[in-house]
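INFO  loader      accepted 1 record
INFO  loader      residues=133
INFO  predictor   begin
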Amino acid sequence: MNLRRGLFRLWIVGTALFVLAIAFVSYGEIKQQFAASLKPYTTFEVQLSDGRTFEVQAPDDQTAAAMIKTMIEALPEGVVLDKPAQPLADVTFVPTPWKTLGRWVSIAFGIPLAVLALGASLLWALSGFAATR
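INFO  predictor   done
INFO  writer      dumping C-alpha cells
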C-alpha cells in the first residue's frame, strides 16, 4: 500500500469538504456585502434624545442603525460630543465585497495548503527513519 498516495487522496477529499463548509458559512456575509455595494447610499438624519441631530450615509436604515450603535458604543466613557454632526457625519459604511471574499477564500484554501505542507514534511521526515532494503 502506498501511504503517500492514500494520504494525498484523503487530503483532497478533506479539502473539498472543508471548502464546501467554508462556502456554506460565508455565503450570507459575502452576499450581503455584494448586495450592499450595489445599493445607492441614502443619507439618514438621526436625532438624539437631547435634540442634537447628525447625518449618516448608509445603503439602508438597518445598516445606519448598526453604524450609529457602533459609533456610540465606541466612545470612551465620560466623553460627551459637543458637535456630534462633525465627527459622526464623516463615518460612512463602505462595503468591501472583494476584500470579504478574499478573506474567506484565503481561509478556505490556506488552511488545507498548510495541512498539506505539514503532512508532506512529516512524511518526508518519517521516511528518513525507514529501514534500508
